[in-house]
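Fold sample X.
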Amino acid sequence: MRNTGTSASAAAVAATAGAATTGTVQEIALYELQRKIYPRAVTGWFAGWRVALVLATQLAFYGTLWLEWNGRQALLFDLVNRKFYIFGLVLWPQDFIYLTLLLIISALSLFLFTAMGGRLWCGYACPQTVYTEIFLWIERRVEGDRVARMRLDAAPLRVEKVLRKTLKHALWIALSLWTGFTFVGYFTPVQQLLGELASWSFGPWEWFWVLFYAFATYGNAGWMREQVCKYMCPYARFQSAMFDQDTMIITYDRSRGEPRGGRSRTLQAAEQGLGDCVDCGICVQVCPTGIDIRNGLQYECIGCAACIDGCNQVMQKMHYAPGLIRYSTQNAIRNSWTRAQILRRMLRPRTLIYSSLLLAVVLAGATALYVRVPLKLDVIRDRGAMARELADGQIENVYRLQIMNTRERNTRYVLSVSGLPGIALASPQEFEVAAASTVALPVRVRLPALPAGGASRPIHFELHALDDPAVAVREKSVFLLPR
């Protein structure tokens, strides 16, 4: 991949040589000033996909927290009570393995999609891309498209300019604050949060996260934009490790487009000794990172395909075939492959390995969730009371049972103990645990006779729900004997 930015070292050498020739002293800037990028609006097939994914992701983000399930918020990460509610599923800290599986699935999906189609995540679903699109939409409605925004920024400070800039930033800030409120609403029940907002009584952590997330949204999508993708996001740096010669990327067909140049529509390009590229620069104007895709694959390219839509519009006006800039692979461009040949190369060792690993992890996670018992039992011996012999000759041990009911309804359970002849509970065997809660239950276990040999014997506690025998767990422990 190539970086098309100005080379500071080359400029320094040239300036030094010029200074030596003329005998004058020159001041050299070692770093190129950051130029502002004014992406031009574009329509087309890929622009339509971006709009659809922006709507889908934001509808899910802003709308899901208002859904209810079993009388509570459908999606809630209750960190205070250490419970994660995901529709009908309640996860506890002991279920951390599912978060691990989710992260592994996300990583493998990213590897697979990148190996097959390049930076699809960056171009269509990354929050940075999505919110930059939303902020750009607001900016265009307030200040106009590319040329109008450039003229407004270059114009002197007047009332119209101040009003337009103020309105734009006010809309940006309002959207950012609502985004921060929505983010916090996934960790604090949104109805409670809404009441606190009405009475202006947020807690310190709620204030911090609302303002922090709002500031991050406003700064990243409104001001930094492409700089986040180019300098802050690590994905741009290691994407080349996941690319190969058969990865679908946005490419410029140099053999068809060169030599580029302006021409008359009345004559064919070949008659004028030119390729199909009219050198209009629209592919650069619509690019959100400001690169020229005609210079080859660059790490700044986020794969949004805006240049494809822009170029196809020009090709249509010139009555040329579309696809001068298109999704293709380096092997396909080099060997002039057909679409069928490109698709066949999708099933290569790298993608097959990624697909197999992803499928295995998804199946393992789905199976684990399917067979997951909504009941957990931990047995802890009472360290303050060792084995003791009662007046009637029985031996007693005391335990503390930590019982976790992950169902969202009150459930009655039956407890039993096994493992030694005549062993029995001296505590109530039937009890109720409230919905999605944990109880600590002291239990006394007695043995009528003293077994021969050994200072301890293994036993098992068994717990099952009265309304569903399939909801049952079995936990191992030991029964201590007097020495």
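Fold sample Y, listed below.
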Amino acid sequence: MRQIPLDVSLSEYMTFETFYLGPNKSVVDSLRDEKNQLIWLAGLEGFGKTHLLHALLNSHEHENKKVLYLPMSESQDFTPDILDNLAQYDLVAIDDIENIIGDMTWEEQLLKFYEDLYSTSNKILITANDTPKGLDFLLPDLSSRFNLALIERIRPMNEDEMIKAILIHSKARGFDLPEDSAKYLINRVPRDVSVLVDMIKLLDYESLSMQRKLTIPFIKTVLDIK
């Protein structure tokens, strides 16, 4: 069972199978290890944090576990009390937590949330652009507790790895993206995993609707690349 407080949705295509391991195999192994209860996943925007968060949520949901997804980039649309009484969930995933660190009301609620779930077997996944030591907490107690987490840092992919990642994702959507087209794509758009996934989604739709192969000229037309 999935619970999401906003008008957002998890992508069925963001799974562990569609994530190119490359330099991050140990990160994926840590996420899939049931013994790890509290995991803090750090990495800059575009490195694939949200993909892995979605992958863990999807894997739990497929096992009929209750999951809660909290995207803190949208925290202005809900209140800190959303963190109340979450022991019913097998997995609580807090995405982009840096957006609420430095806000005393949110930090106090996060500390209560931590204490409430500490004695349970529930899994907590937190993503941020840095490790707990790199964020400016107002509450030292909250910082110290999050520093007890298993902290993993996502490493960026090089060009060849990014191409392989795009090819895996396009194949998961049911179409074959030629390698030369993939190379062209990553050299014309930001090397951000989420941006590239959105591009793949758009190209998939346009190629199906127009019955066109994903050639470089077609990609240039769809994305309006000069």
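Sample Y note: The helical segments are 25-32, 49-62, 104-118, 140-146, 159-172, 179-186, 193-210, 216-223.
Also: The chain has two domains: 2-153, 159-223.
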